[in-house]
Amino acid sequence: MRLALVTDIHGNLVALEAVVADIRRRGVDQIVNLGDSLSGPLLPRETAQYLMAEGWLSLAGNHERQILTQGPERRSASDEYAHSQLTAKEFNWLRSLSPSTALTADVFLCHGTPSSDIEYFLETVDAGAVRAATSQEVESRLGSERSPLVACGHTHIARSVRTRRGQVIVNPGSVGLPAYDDIHPTPHVIETGSPDARYAIVEKSQDGWVVSLLSVPYDHRSMAQLASRHGRLDWEHALLTGYVGR
User: β-strands 107-110, 123-126: how paired?
Assistant: First the structure.
């Protein structure tokens, strides 16, 4: 089995198209999308339509949940813009998505962790600083999930971890947003330091799961310009540099 993992597209259709072109060049059996597909000031409706046409297995991330359930007074600017661009067809598609699923007996997919769409899996925020999670933290977040391969997203940081149980946990990194700031659980920033789009290919071998974390260049300047036109200079800086503006 050879799978491509994409996640955290955030309406960046140009980045997604570059990733898909790279995937098709390499060849896989299936593409799965781990959520947070639309939120942001870019191309939410067009991205939803692309994903619907492709028919991949897609999950609902925390932003899908927020777009569907939060009122305008609570929605972030990114969620509000996405909400304003969608039609009934896209909303119905969002409602059909699950936050996690077992793809096979060997592969479990989630956006955050098996029990939460907003919890970081492989990273921990301590007093505003982001660090790699300890083995004990990772295994606690796994809970009762025993699948040999667990795929997650949410933090936008590409990473692969093999636990003491022998399970492999993979975050493919973000397709569409290389840096952001957040207030949950405390204020912090995530920065990859590169404008490239990220994804992963995982392949089952005789010895276990082989993980390739991939970085793909694309026309990020066009998306930064679009963010700027929509009044989001924070996104413009993140898309151009991979860093949060200071």
Answer: unpaired
CATH no. for residue 177? 3.60.21.10
Q: Which domain holds residue 89?
A: 2-241
> Is residue 209 within 8 Å of residue 203, measured between CB atoms?
yes
Q: Is residue 192 part of a domain?
A: yes
Confidence (pTM) = 0.98
For the CA atoms of the chain, what is the radius of gyration? 17
pLDDT tens by residue, 130-174: 999 999 999 999 999 999 999 999 999 999 999 999 999 999 999
Model confidence pLDDT, tens digit, residues 108-127: 999 999 999 999 999 999 98
Number of structural domains in the chain: 1
Q: Measured between alpha carbons, how far is 175 from 82 in angstroms, rounded to an integer?
A: 17
